[in-house]
Each structure stands twice: as C-alpha cells, then as structure tokens.
Amino acid sequence: MHELLLHASVPASRQKQVLNILAGIAAMQPQTFHERHLVYKSTRPPNRAPTQVGGSQAVGGSQAVKSQGSAAQTAMQGDLFFLHLVEDLAEQGENGRGEEEGKANEDDAMDGMDGGETGNAGADLEEKENPALMTTTAESNGAEFTPKSSTSKRTLQFRDIPEAGNRRPVTSRLMADIPINRGDVDAFMSAMEYEQVSIHHLRGHRFAHNSFSLLFFQPFLPSSDPATPPTLIALDPWSYILQASLRVADGTKPDQMVRGVKELMALKEMLKGSVDLEMVDRMALDTRVR
Question: Which pTM value belongs to this model?
C-alpha cells in the first residue's frame, strides 16, 4: 500500500480558525485523537535477513496481519527501519478516564469556532505577548498517562522513506499498518530483534473527507522529571501540524496514483490562501536507522 501526503505548519494562534475551515470542508465536527507512539529500533546487523518469528511470539491472529506483515518485511530487506507501535488512547481516555474527557476536548475545540479568530483574539494576543503563558498552558493541558495499556487499540506501523526523484507534486511512500489484536508485543518485537528507544504522543483532531484523512495535531513528549506526576509537554507549543493523507491500495497502478494525486491537489487548491499544503523534504521523513 502507498501513502500520498501533503503537510503544512500552522501557528498556534490560528488553531480555532483552521479547525473551523477544516470542519466546513469535511462537513463534520473535529474528532479528538490521542496516539502514543512507542518507537522501536532494529538491533540486527544491516543486510541480514530479519528473524522469522515463531508461533509463540505471534501477535494479531488475522489474515490482515499476515498480509501486511509480509509486505512490511519485503520492504525492509536491506535497510534497517524504525517501527512505531501506535496505541489509540482516545477511545479509553487518557489514564482510563473514559469517553467523557474526549467529548469535553471536542467541545472545547468547537468553542468559538462560529466566530472564527475573533472570539479568541484576546487569548491569542496574550499568548503572543507572554511566551511563558503558552508553555505553562501546554503543560497544564497535558494529561496524565500510564506507561502501558492492555485495552487500547494497537497498530504496528511501517513507513518507508519517501520515493526519490518523485515527479508527483505530493510525497509518496510505501506503508503498512499491522493491527495488533492479542499477544505479547514486547516478546514479539524482541524476537524480531527490535528494541524500544523512545516514546512520543500525538494529540489533536482528525477529519475525513472523500478518500483522504486530515490530521491537525501537536507532538508531545512525556515529562522526564521523576518528582512530578507523568505529564505531556508540547514539543513546539507555538505551532500545529496539518497532514493531509490518502492511501492507494496498489501503488504500481498508475491510474490509482494519478487519481489520488488529483484528489490531494484539489484539496490543496481548496485551502489555498488559508493553509499552504506542501511537500516536505523527503529526508525529514526518513525512517531508516542510521
């Protein structure tokens, strides 16, 4: 499967306005999402075939896992790649606090959207004049979280480095999502000769329109102070990332790729003047282990 992408950086002061624009395009309210990304690094030497995982380390159990896993293993021949184990925390609520918190976050995101930026001009100005205020707000809004969860939805993600010499006006790369339904993920990753190296979170809102997905989010890092309760701190509280993506089932079929590119370019034209969606440097999306 291939993924087509466009990205934009949006100032935090325009969050409400952009949410309003995206809600109008998608004809839906923003849906809160919170993902925890556990990043794994391969420990095997380069150019050595990956270890075949035995039945005792198997996870998932569905045909989708087997087919997506085979595609990912084929793509990872030669180079070593980082893999992400993504846990969906929005369904259970951060730290198990349930759906009420997620609903409250959606209501907060919609507050003042009818008024565009006008309703938040005072707050935006105050944040611009006082950077410490924004940092404090970002930290106080960071929810407590638990290191692991057995009830959250989990997906093992592989993302290839974007194609070089791409003549298309969008970023394109090979990808695979492997749903994890059951089993010991740590034992599975260890058997594949992967070790966990970092954790980060993505929090924001998602929209769906036609065939593409829109994610409007900020990345967060867990606090490292052992004397305080675990919280999430925004990596860059001054800006948000807008990602427009579309998946193509078979990237070897030119007609499917052309159709996908046309849809993304139509979205780019629709947002022109409000948000500038662009291709990013392919090396910024390099997922290979160095």
Answer: 0.76
